[in-house]
Amino acid sequence: MARKRGLSVKELFGGRFINPDAVRRSMVGLEKRLDADFAARTRLRKQLAASPEIISAPFLGASHKEQGPAAAAVRELRRLHKVARGLKVQRQRIVKVNGGIFTGQIGATVAAPFDYQWTWSAVSGDDPGDNSVSADRASGDLSLILDTGVDDSSSSAARAAVGTYFYPPFSTGTLQVWSAPWFSYLWGTFCSFASAHADGWIGMYVGSYDLGGRFTGAVIDYRASLWSHDQWFGSTTNSDFSSGYGLYPPPVQVDRQHQYIIWAWCGGEISADGWHALWGSGATDQFYVVVPSITWVFEPVWVVEAAP
Length: 308
What we know:
9-stranded antiparallel sheet; 3 helices
């Protein structure tokens, strides 16, 4: 007797799918928005940094007369920044997830390999040269490594994502998505009378497309902050990991006049003023994420027309 074949997730969508090249082109609009937001934050940080510089000027002027202790302190902070740049976060290894369809409400757990991958990054000012960002749809691995420049002020930001296709099985309904990525991170800020910033987050993003594959907007843009730190003097470092961090954005309304891509993504941003003889700052971010699966649940909404 022939063996019965199970129903695959993609068979629920009636053969619909968006070509990865079309998806990459559609993300250009998001990338332009991220570029503009990054430039605006960079300008704002430069404006906010002016007041601390005025406040610190008398101290730095006095320190010129006794460069020994002040310069030694700056050298030590610069050394700590260099040590942090050389540290490596241990990447988390996860148990393989078997995807499949579950009944009741219509839903599916989609395990790697995913349908899509995407990255974005930006640097302003002194380029450290060794920043990197990656996304691998085959494994669900995401990573970003960001450092500020050594000799002058700089800012760096990055995003990475893997995603899966979704098309509503019924005319209209609510869509709930979730994921539980594994991650590990290390970040640090090192300051002597100069500002530094470091942040990192993880989240989910759902993009909407018309039936022709044209991007029509984001229906979910969800980010959960893991760290966000600003400092003006001293040094702060932190590292942590999670064996499964639950991401549960609120459900949204979807319909069969659109098709959707569900992304799990992460991001980070740093900024600092670089290092000088008597003052300076540096920052670093390392972030490794593994997305084992993305789950969606669709609940049909049955529309009842009012009697005439």
